[in-house]
C-alpha cells in the first residue's frame, strides 16, 4: 500500500445527497457525503447493508433513475463535473474514465449475449480496434482474472457459467478500458480465496502500473486491511469515520467502527463464547434519528446531545498520520468531542 497524500485528487465528492421517492415517503439514503480519491490510491468504503455505500457510487455515475432519485452536491472526475454531465458524455466517461464492478453479476450481464460479445462491445465502444483485435484483448482479460479456457468462455452465455465465473467476467469488463478510477462493489464476495487473491493482485498491478484510483466497497475488513490506503465508514447514509487504514482499524474512534471490528471472529478465542454483535438494526432511511445517527444502538452514548445534535466529522486522536487526518463524527467514544 502506498498512500498518496500529495497531488490533485482524481475524484472529489462534496456534500453528496441522494433522496429516493418510496411508497413509505422520502428516503434520505446518502446525507452529505464528502471524500476524495487520488491516483494510485485505494479508498475502502465499509458499513452494514443499507448504509448508502452502493447508492452513493451509482449516483456518481448517473445510474439512478431520475423519476425516483434526486441527487445533489458535487462530484468532479479529473476536474469535470460528473453530476452535471449529459447522458452522452457520461457514456464516454464510463469505461476509460470509470470502470464499475457491480455487486450482482447475473443482473449486470446481458443474458442473451455471449460473454465475448459483451466484452468486445465495450472494448470497441472506446477505441478504434477491429473485432479480431478486440476479441484477442477480451481473451487476455479473461486470462488475467483467472477464468479457465478463456477462448471457449468467450462463446458461452452468462447462465452457462458459475456465479464466481460470472463475477470474474464482470471484473474483466470493468478493466477492459484501463479506467482511471475503478469502483468495485463487493467485487470478490462470490469468489474463493485463491481467485480473490488473483483479483486483488490484478487491482494492485493496475494501481501501481497505471496510477488507477480505486473505490473498494466491502463488508470484508480483512480485505480492507490488506489493500486499502484509507477507510471511510458509512452508517445511515453518512460518513461517521475516515482516515488511514492504520488509524481506523487500529485506533477506531467511533463506537460504530469499534462495533464492526468487535464483531470479527478471533481464531484464538473462537471456542470461548459467542461472537460480539451490535445491538439493534440500522435505521430506515425514511425515518433517520435526530442527533447522532448511531445513538439508538450506541452502547456508550452519553448526554442528551447525542439524541439532539448531529456531530460533525472532526479530527480525533493523535490527529494526522501520513499527512492524512483521522476524523470521526461522534460526541462520545475515544477522541470524540466532550
TrEMBL record:
One of its GO terms (biological process) is peptide transport. The keyword Nucleotide-binding applies. It is found in: Cell membrane. GO terms for molecular function: ATP binding; ATP hydrolysis activity. Transmembrane segments: none annotated. Residues 11-261 form the ABC transporter domain. It comes from Geodermatophilus obscurus. Its main location: membrane. The keyword Cell membrane applies. Signal peptide: none annotated. PROSITE patterns: ABC_TRANSPORTER_1 (PS00211), ABC_TRANSPORTER_2 (PS50893). Keywords: ATP-binding, Cell membrane, Membrane, Nucleotide-binding, Transport. The lineage of its organism: Bacteria, Bacillati, Actinomycetota, Actinomycetes, Geodermatophilales. Belongs to the ABC transporter superfamily. GO terms for cellular component: plasma membrane. It is a peripheral membrane protein. This is Peptide/nickel transport system ATP-binding protein.
Amino acid at each position: 500500500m502506498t498512500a498518496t497524500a500529495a497531488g490533485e485528487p482524481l475524484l472529489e465528492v462534496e456534500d453528496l445527497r441522494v433522496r429516493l421517492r418510496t411508497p413509505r415517503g422520502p428516503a434520505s439514503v446518502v446525507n452529505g457525503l464528502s471524500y476524495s480519491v487520488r491516483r494510485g490510491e485505494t479508498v475502502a468504503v465499509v458499513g452494514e447493508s443499507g448504509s448508502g455505500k452502493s447508492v452513493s457510487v451509482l449516483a456518481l455515475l448517473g445510474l439512478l433513475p431520475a423519476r425516483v432519485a434526486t441527487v445533489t452536491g458535487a462530484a468532479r472526475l479529473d476536474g469535470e463535473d460528473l453530476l452535471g454531465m449529459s447522458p452522452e458524455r457520461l457514456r464516454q466517461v464510463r469505461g476509460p474514465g470509470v470502470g464499475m464492478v457491480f455487486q450482482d453479476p447475473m443482473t449486470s450481464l446481458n443474458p442473451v449475449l455471449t460473454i465475448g460479445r459483451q466484452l468486445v462491445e465495450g472494448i470497441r465502444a472506446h477505441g478504434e480496434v477491429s473485432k479480431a483485435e478486440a476479441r484477442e484483448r477480451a481473451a487476455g482479460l479473461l486470462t488475467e482474472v483467472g477464468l479457465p479456457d478463456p477462448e471457449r468462455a468467450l462463446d458461452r452465455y452468462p447462465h452457462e457459467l458459475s456465479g464466481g465465473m460470472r463475477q470474474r467476467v464482470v471484473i474483466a469488463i470493468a478493466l477492459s478500458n484501463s479506467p482511471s478510477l475503478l469502483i468495485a462493489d463487493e467485487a470478490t464476495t462470490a469468489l474463493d480465496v485463491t481467485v480473490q487473491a488473483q483479483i486483488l493482485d490484478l487491482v494492485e498491478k493496475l494501481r501501481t502500473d497505471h496510477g488507477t484510483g480505486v473505490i473498494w466497497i466491502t463488508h470484508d475488513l480483512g480485505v480492507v486491511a490488506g489493500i486499502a490506503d484509507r477507510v471511510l465508514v458509512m452508517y445511515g447514509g453518512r460518513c461517521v469515520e475516515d482516515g488511514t487504514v492504520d488509524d481506523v482499524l487500529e485506533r477506531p474512534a467511533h463506537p460504530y467502527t469499534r462495533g464492526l471490528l468487535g464483531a470479527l471472529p478471533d481464531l484464538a478465542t473462537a471456542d470461548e463464547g459467542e461472537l460480539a454483535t451490535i445491538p439493534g438494526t440500522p435505521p430506515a432511511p425514511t425515518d433517520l434519528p435526530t442527533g447522532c445517527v448511531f445513538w439508538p444502538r450506541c452502547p456508550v452514548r452519553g448526554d442528551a446531545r447525542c439524541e439532539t445534535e448531529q456531530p460533525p466529522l472532526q479530527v480525533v486522536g493523535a490527529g494526522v498520520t501520513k499527512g492524512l487526518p483521522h476524523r470521526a463524527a461522534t460526541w462520545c467514544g475515544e477522541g470524540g468531542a466532550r
